[in-house]
């Protein structure tokens, strides 16, 4: 190799010294490669910076416009007509009720489906179909879940209700829990299951008492992320629990929720309503982000 | 002794059978759920399909007075905003993923990755509000007048930039959508870039490739299919996004050639018109029919995305 390089000047006898020309060509090429490398790196850095700027801009706006509206009245008063110091307590409570019930109903189903996929049907046709459908539901437009529940639970029973809102949120929770449960159960080493079986434990006991316990962190992460996701859902609630400007915890009546109230208030022409919308936005965003950070940092699956 | 053993075995196998059946039933329930969503939307939209036939897809009218409804404008708006959002988001997402997998020092990868994932966790209504109160004024006062003044008179291309600078419109929606789907695409790309075996990259570095050359000649060819899958996943998100778009698109049932013109999408027209649609009306049926169409479109996009991603990312 080095011999052929050393002999290369001799390959261009007379005229322009070939070695020097090759050298300058090589230098130009290497400069060009270094330059395009530099440009690519800088562009990627800028792209990342832009993404972070968006995040800070959104959070900054929420703090800037939301923080000044926070007061005791937000947490003690129900939504009132403009100009009468209304609060958001009915929306906050309505959101809590619907989110908690939606997660409580959706989680066991998602857990079972995840278990089925990881423990019983890793490769079967039915398992692959269920996995595919669950992944599609995970990204399906949430507004369609709202329309579906409207068709099934609102239209036939003659009215919007908290129950319908809970049902819509539960449908959204299921695929999120399915995904994390299946992923976490698949990480559990087979030796752990074999140890349980060797002690004579039936399979279901091995799953419930060994695998669930080993995957607890991951499953908890999935549930937290599911809470965070449905707490901010607006579109499916528009057609199901509708929203309610009065205090109501009656599950068979229309029920208020924070996202729907934000939607109604943000588009209104009244300054104090818009201010309340920003407060609601601040509350919900920081609640959701806190859940995400807890899920990602505190419960990070040990890998 | 043998009696006790057989009893224990039979109870445990009985418990196993029950648990397996319950888990299986839950799996089948998810299938039924998807089936029920499709069927309920289709049945709800059936009166509209019956009344307007295939013309429902091509009719650009949305006239509650005459009771004539068509899906052409919302379908156009849905597709154009989503595709524009993809065009805006993909280069940024690629940059983020490249930075996070190859360039960033190890100690910032975690925090920046988490920050970008948090961007995905912000509820869509917040994007809508932020877009409406912050981005729309910027677009209306600065960006749109600039483009209209400087490019509006150029033949052919100029048509894209004509019209009054409302601030709202197709382009603003696409911009907000791009910010929303950016973290999804970036996270997927980062995960698939990480699946490239280190040996491949090290070999390329070993023969003297620059970072960018490794990316272009090793990482991208290796992950091409999954990268497209990640983009389709983002497209699927953008198609059905409701709240963010409803705030900023201008909600006008008209196909405008200008990027700054107002429009609507399937999701935004359903969210806005639904409260004014009495049960049993043709209008409600038309909205449900639109929902059915949206489901079909997103199902196809998401299915393609899943098939492309299947091999690389679980």
Q: What features would you describe in this structure?
A:
The complex is a heterodimer of chains A (303) and B (314). By secondary structure, chain A is mainly α. Helix content of chain A is 74%, strand content 0%. Chain A has 13 helices and no strands. Chain A starts with a helix and ends in a 5-residue tail after the last helix. The N terminus of chain A is likely disordered. Chain B has 314 residues and is an all-alpha fold. Chain B is 75% helix and 1% strand. Chain B contains 11 helices and 2 strands; from the N terminus they run ααββααααααααα. Chain B has a two-stranded antiparallel sheet with strand order 1-2. The longest helix of chain B has 51 residues. The N terminus of chain B is likely disordered. At the A-B interface, helix 2, helix 4, helix 5, helix 6 and helix 7 of A face helix 1, helix 3, helix 4, helix 5 and helix 6 of B.
Sum up the structure in keywords.
heterodimer; A: about 300 residues; mainly alpha; flat; B: about 325 residues; two-stranded antiparallel sheet; about 75% helix; disordered N terminus
Tell me the strand order in the biggest sheet of chain B. Answer: 1-2
Which pair of protein chains has the largest interface, and what are the residue counts? A-B, 91 and 92 residues
Terminal CA distance of chain B reads: 47 Å
- Proportion of residues in β-strands of chain B: under 5%
Q: Biggest β-sheet of chain B: count, sense, barrel?
A: 2 strands, antiparallel
Q: What's the count of strands of chain B?
A: 2
Residues in helix, % of chain B: over 70%
